[in-house]
Amino acid sequence: MLEPAVMQRYLFSDDVEAIPGARGEDLGSEFHCHHGGSLVSMRVVSVEPGRELTLTADQPTTMYITTRIGDCGDGRTRIQRAFVWDVPADPDVAQSVRQVMESVVQAGEGAMQAVFEEKARA
User: Fold this and answer.
1) How many CB atoms lie within 10 A of CB 120?
2) Range of 97's domain?
3) Where are the alpha helices (DSSP H) in 1-122?
4) How far apart are CA 33 and CA 75, in angstroms?
């Protein structure tokens, strides 16, 4: 999941720049995702290789994104994602953020599924 080409697909960005963490580790690494004229920065704040990953993102609001990967048996994989952010005080802004996140989650899940299926076939 931390491969720039994979992130570019499920984040629907034009380009992803990867900056390794200290000593080349995944923890602390950053991804700068270019979306047209905007830039979303994501940082790895927790990682259990092959099992769980937590990122912070700065757009559309500061948030934490945790992805858990587990074996479902029969050669199937379960992907669970949790998004946590402070709800903006302005109800209109809060609703806009919620709508953006719903779209991102739905579109991203299809892209993630396609990536995992391609890797399984390879």
Assistant:
1) 10
2) 4-121
3) 4-11, 91-121
4) 32
Six-digit token string for 35 = 């979306």
Tens-digit pLDDT profile for residues 12-57: 788 999 999 999 899 999 999 998 888 999 999 999 998 999 999 9
- Tell me the pLDDT tens digit for each residue of 48-72: 998 999 999 998 889 999 999 888 8
Q: How many domains does the chain have?
A: 1
Give the CA diameter of the chain: 47
> Strand pairing partners for 61?
none
- Token reading at 14: 């034009």
Q: What is the CATH number of the domain that holds 32?
A: 3.30.530.20
How far is it, in rounded angstroms, from Cα 84 to Cα 66? Answer: 9
* Among candidate residues 17, 23, 20, 11, the one with its CA nearest the CA of residue 67: 11
